[in-house]
Amino acid sequence: MLKNYFKIAIAVLKRRKFFTFISLFGISFTLTILMVLTAFIDKVINDNYPDKKRDRMLYINRIAQVGDGNMQSGTLSYYFLSHYTGMMKTPVKVGISSIFNGTNTYVNNQKISVNYKYTNADFWDVLDHDFIEGKPFNKQQVTNADRVVVISEDMKKQYFGDVQSVVGKYFEADNVSYRVIGVVKNVPVTNYMMYSDIYLPYTVSKADYKDKSYSGMYMAFLLAATPADVPKMQAEYEDLIKRVPVERKDFKHVYSHANTFFRSYVDTGREDKSGVFIVVTAISIFVFIFTLLPTLNLVNINITRIMERSSEIGVRKAFGASSKTLVYQFIVENLILTLLGGIIGVVLSVAALSFINGADLISNLELRINFSVLFIGLLVCLVFGFISGVYPAWRMSKLNVVTALKAQ
Amino acid sequence: MIRLQNIEKVYRTDTIETLALNSVSLDVAKGEFLSIMGPSGCGKSTLLNIMGLLDAPSKGEIRIDDQKTGGMNDKQLAQFRNKKLGFIFQSYHLINDLQVLDNVELPLLYRDTTAKQRRELAAEALEKVGLANRLKHFPTQLSGGQRQRVAIARAIVGRPEIILADEPTGNLDSAMGNEIMEILLNLNRTDGTTIVMVTHDENMAHKTHRLVRLFDGAQVL
């Protein structure tokens, strides 16, 4: 039976090549976009470099002070983070770093743009950067405000060229020379909380890191001793924030949260709506609309295609096919079509991902097709095939035999 | 074998009501070869479709092989047709995307048969109609007469007790028409298949056991 369906499905596909092309193009193109999107989301959410101990970590990247009609929200000051998180008992370490900022440097009259980040020494213990050479700066070097720098692999290539070792060499940024003490594997820019081209001790920052205002350009990474301690650590920070006094009289509340990676990654700074909700809703709406259009298109094409076969439907019914059997046949045929589109989609996705990786559109981001992406892709295909086949099949199966036979 | 009692068929649109069949009662005996004649639009095909359970009457009762067919649902009707009935249409209604052998196999797909059994039975049916050497051809590669023979093979492959033929020679020249008629007569003689045939051709009709004439939806002979 299935072999028979397969034969006729292939014959029908060959018969109307233009329709087949439109259908296959719609399916494979949509699938490609979804595959690239899921590969991107997967990379952003599931790639845990350099924060390999995510299950023991919480992220603080925002503080908000709210009054009657006024609000101030943004990253935090070094003082606030070191002072208040310093009082916490659960974290075993607190890594602190600034957001990344850009500057330019020049090598042989060539401009290179550099993103830099200030960090404390614990930053290197909380996170697990892969050091290609050298090592991170230690507490002593930070306290001494030593002009030392850890650079990324990419920056090493750009600044120094293809050389074996750069530890001990000098890197100039903003007219200051820093001694390179380590080179780390690249962090993709999508991991914006940790990404940078060069890392400097916060003590060499020109801005006053002793300033006691709450807002600044820093965030913190709290490390608990065990994953089980994470909720406790979170509760402790919530409790601490409740006791933090407002900075100015026109503010009434202070809000700041120690969140898990994903929550903090998509944090909007709003107390009433979580970023997770907004991101999930936005992605769902996008995927829904993006898959709805080709599905509707397929439904239409399928109706036309099936209508052309009314004589066949009539004959099959006359010779004993029930409506249910016919629905089954058309769905199977449609699944064959969509799976074919799926296979083309997978090939296109591999091509698209290798193009995106090759063109280096997003710095240091290496997208890959993985099994979860492939699984989602195939699932989307099956859902496509099913949805776009069911309605036309159902409609056609209800066709009266005599009418179907006359339609030829 | 087939018993029609007071069959009435009314086609309704918003404004017009057309009476296609008016109180037709007919008995077809087992092994009988019956032909139905009448002018165009007199209800011949409608009657045949109702006999074949392809269309439902507005009134009246159909019994086939002593079974009432009135209360059957879609699935039951499909199964009943599959077992008891074979159809031959004027315009053949072959599936052009499938090879001759696959076309003939079609009724067996809806039965509990293995692929091998289907192949064998279909080949046997094609041999019976003299097309044993055309199994791998597509319908479009055959002449009209050959196509109708494929359609006959499809109608008999499931060994139904009744064959309903709607102008089976209507699209063929007289030589080919005679060939087809011979096959049908032979089926009736040797296998005892009950055949009901709608035709416009007096010569063909006179070769059958009995002739029924319809006029304006009513039986006149």
TrEMBL record, chain A:
Coiled coil feature spans: none
Predominant subcellular localization, coarse grouping: membrane
Transmembrane segments: 21-41, 276-299, 335-357, 369-391
GO molecular function, one term: transmembrane transporter activity
Membrane topology field: Multi-pass membrane protein
Domain ABC3 transporter permease C-terminal positions: 285-400
Domain MacB-like periplasmic core: residue ranges: 20-238
Cellular component GO terms held in the UniProt record: plasma membrane
Keyword tags: Cell membrane, Membrane, Transmembrane, Transmembrane helix
InterPro entries: ABC3_permease_C, MacB_PCD, Macrolide_Exporter_MacB
Top-level lineage group: Bacteria
Subcellular location(s) of the protein: Cell membrane
Name of this chain's protein: Putative ABC transport system permease protein
Species of the source: Mucilaginibacter oryzae
From TrEMBL, chain B:
GO MF annotation, one: ATP binding
GO cellular component: membrane protein complex
PROSITE patterns: ABC_TRANSPORTER_1, ABC_TRANSPORTER_2
Family matches, as Pfam families: ABC_tran
Alphabetically ordered keywords of this record: ATP-binding, Nucleotide-binding, Translocase, Transport
SMART domains xrefs: AAA
Domain ABC transporter: 2-220
Family that this chain belongs to: Belongs to the ABC transporter superfamily. Macrolide exporter (TC 3.A.1.122) family.
PANTHER family: CELL DIVISION ATP-BINDING PROTEIN FTSE (PTHR42798:SF6), LIPOPROTEIN-RELEASING SYSTEM ATP-BINDING PROTEIN LOLD (PTHR42798)
Record protein name field: Putative ABC transport system ATP-binding protein
